[in-house]
C-alpha cells in the first residue's frame, strides 16, 4: 500500500512511523509512506498556507490552493485511492473501517491545523472525513498516525503471525482475552491453571469466555454487534442475571 500524508509538520509524521512494526513494514516495502510538506505547494514566496477567515472570527483558516496543488502533484488513480481528511467532524474510526481501508492500493491523508480548513477542500478533494474520537487535537497529525498504524498492521506479512490479527480486540466485536507469561506466580497472583493444562480446546473455550466476560463488564455496547454463538449468548444471560 502507498500512503501519502500532507501536513505542515512532516517530521512529526515521518520519525515516529520509522520505528517498530510500521518502520519494519516500510523497510520491507510493504508500506510506501510519503510525507509531503504542504508549504512546498503554497504558491507564494512566504510559504504561507493560511489566512484570516471571511466573516471575521478568531484564528486562521488553512487555504484551499496549497491542498489542491499538493493533490494534483500526486497524479492519483481515483479508482484505486481515497483522500481522507482527519477531522473531529468525521465518522469515528472503527476496526471495520480500518479493514475497509486496508484493501486500498493508495490512501492520501490531509492534516488540518489552526481554526480549520477552507470548506472548498472538502467539496473539491476529500472523499471522507475520519475522527479518532470525540475530542479536538492541535492538528490532524496524531490522528493520521493512529490511522496509518491501524491500517498497516492489517497488511499481509506485517505482523509475525497472521492469527494475531484474528484474536485481537474488536476483530470479532469483542475485547481480547487476558494474557499471561512467566513467572507462574507474582505477588500472590497466579496464572490460571487452565492455561497450563496443555489442552488447547479447553484453553480456546476459556479464552472465548474471558473475552465475552471482559467485554460485558468493560464495553457492553460492543455486544449488540458481536458475532455470538448460542453458547456465548447463554454466558451473557448468566452475566446479566448475576450468576457469574
What attributes does this structure have?
Trp Operon Repressor, Chain A; 5-stranded parallel β-sheet; 10 strands; alpha/beta; 244 residues; Alpha/beta knot; 2 domains
**Residue-averaged pLDDT:** 94
- What is the CA–CA distance across the termini? 46 Å
SSE series: EHHEEEHEHEEHEHHEEHH
Radius of gyration: 23 Å
Number of helices: 9
Poorly predicted runs are none
| SS strand fraction | 15-25%
Percent helix, as a range, is 25-40%
Which CATH architecture of the largest domain? 3-Layer(aba) Sandwich
Number of strands: 10
SS-derived structural category? alpha/beta
Please provide a written account of the structure.
- The chain has 244 residues and is α/β, with parallel strands linked by helices.
- The protein folds into two domains: 151 residues, SPOUT methyltransferase, trefoil knot domain (Alpha/beta knot), CATH 3.40.1280.10; 71 residues, tRNA(m1g37)methyltransferase, domain 2 (Trp Operon Repressor, Chain A, Orthogonal Bundle), CATH 1.10.1270.
- Helix content is 35%, strand content 18%.
- It contains nine helices and ten strands.
- The strands form three sheets. It has a five-stranded parallel β-sheet with strand order 2-1-6-5-8.
- The protein starts with a strand and ends with a helix.
- The mean pLDDT is 94.
Amino acid at each position: 500500500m502507498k500512503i501519502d500524508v500532507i501536513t505542515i509538520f512532516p517530521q512529526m509524521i515521518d520519525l515516529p512511523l520509522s520505528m517498530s512494526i510500521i518502520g519494519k513494514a516500510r523497510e520491507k516495502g510493504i508500506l510506501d509512506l510519503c510525507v509531503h510538506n504542504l508549504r512546498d505547494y503554497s504558491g507564494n514566496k512566504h510559504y504561507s498556507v493560511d489566512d484570516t477567515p471571511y466573516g471575521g472570527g478568531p484564528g486562521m483558516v488553512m487555504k484551499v490552493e496549497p491542498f489542491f496543488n499538493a493533490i494534483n502533484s500526486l497524479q492519483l488513480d481515483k479508482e484505486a485511492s481515497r483522500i481522507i481528511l482527519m477531522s473531529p467532524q468525521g465518522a469515528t474510526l472503527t476496526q471495520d473501517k480500518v479493514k475497509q481501508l486496508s484493501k486500498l492500493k493508495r490512501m492520501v491523508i490531509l492534516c488540518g491545523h489552526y481554526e480549520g480548513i477552507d470548506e472548498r477542500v472538502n467539496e473539491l478533494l476529500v472523499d471522507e472525513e475520519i475522527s479518532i474520537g470525540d475530542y479536538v487535537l492541535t492538528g490532524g497529525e496524531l490522528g493520521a498516525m493512529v490511522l496509518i498504524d491501524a491500517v498497516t498492521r492489517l497488511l499481509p506479512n506485517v505482523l509475525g503471525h497472521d492469527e494475531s490479527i484474528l484474536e485481537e480486540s474488536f476483530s470479532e466485536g469483542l475485547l481480547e482475552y487476558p494474557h499471561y507469561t512467566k513467572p507462574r506466580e507474582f505477588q500472590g497472583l497466579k496464572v490460571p491453571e487452565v492455561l497450563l493444562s496443555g489442552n488447547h480446546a479447553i484453553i480456546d473455550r476459556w479464552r472465548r469466555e474471558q473475552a465475552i466476560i471482559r467485554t460485558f463488564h468493560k464495553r457492553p455496547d460492543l455486544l449488540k454487534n458481536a458475532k455470538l454463538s448460542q453458547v456465548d449468548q447463554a454466558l451473557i444471560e448468566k452475566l446479566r442475571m448475576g450468576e457469574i
